[in-house]
Input
Amino acid sequence: MITYSSSLEGITPSKLEGFFVGWQTAPTPETHLRLLQNSSHVVLAVDNATGEVAGFITAMCDHVLSASVPLLEVRPEFRGQGIGGELVRRMLDVIGDLYMVDFVCHPSLQPFYTRLGMRPSTGMMRRNPKRQGGAE
Ligand SMILES: CC(C)(COP(=O)(O)OP(=O)(O)OC[C@H]1O[C@@H](n2cnc3c(N)ncnc32)[C@H](O)[C@@H]1OP(=O)(O)O)[C@@H](O)C(=O)NCCC(=O)NCCS
Output
């Protein structure tokens, strides 16, 4: 069974193995914990059987007008069970009633987000491959 939580209490790096699948320079579990701690909001999906994190979502928020959701991932062995959708729904609840909530995604994921009430947009981004594993 999966439990959803916005608290990082009891979350150690060892509970954060198996994320950033396919990333050339994946952040370590220690770096992952640090970025969760530094986010405005997090929602975790925790596997009750093991206490491991099965999925997570982060948001950065100014609490006035806007929030953005930089990271959402469900570990491959937990995908296709509704966990990703539930993480998005819960994060939207946590963020609350703001003017703007922005997600950046690959076009193939637009149907996933459309089902959750989002509409397609365009965007611009910058990526620095040297920092993919995380800043010091
Ligand atoms: C996207 C992701 C979070 C979805 O998590 P999940 O727990 O499998 O999500 P749900 O079970 O709620 O929904 C699954 C739906 O997402 C869709 N989906 C997931 N990944 C997809 C992809 N890469 N391309 C197209 N559709 C995708 C599936 O079609 C599925 O729809 P279905 O139930 O009609 O088959 C998960 O696939 C993931 O972690 N992917 C890698 C990281 C990523 O892409 N994150 C999003 C960054 S914007």
Remarks:
- Residues 83-95 form the longest helix (13 residues).
- The mean pLDDT is 97.
